[in-house]
Amino acid sequence: MSLNFVTALAVKSFDVPDKKRCPENAEYDLVTVNDYSVARLILGPGWRWSESIRPFEQTELCQHHHLGFCISGMMEVESSDGLRTTIHPNDTYTIPPGHDEWVAGPASFVAVEFLGAASFGRRSSRGVHART
Question: For residue 19, how far is the Cα from the chain centroid?
Fold first, then answer.
């Protein structure tokens, strides 16, 4: 088991992200503080992983682990074994690999993710987490 320690004070703003990715109907703002990547997701109405991201990832289902907090909007998630849930504003969530997800309703889904999203929208990441 590895341990993570915060060794220095660091502050970054999503107003000036280290990286910005804008695949179809989505925006991912990435900041890195010390050894940690944090992402703000803005996924537009109608966005769906299996339609928008699958061509980049080249996997049948999303293979990322997600740990996040929903700021606004709603997201539906369905696991490979058919379990479904809805993420609402003010929900904290974890999603294991092997799922599809889509924006539910007319509003964009806005969330901050602490695990998983650093690789989102990166061509052929195949679920591999990275800060690039």
Answer: 14
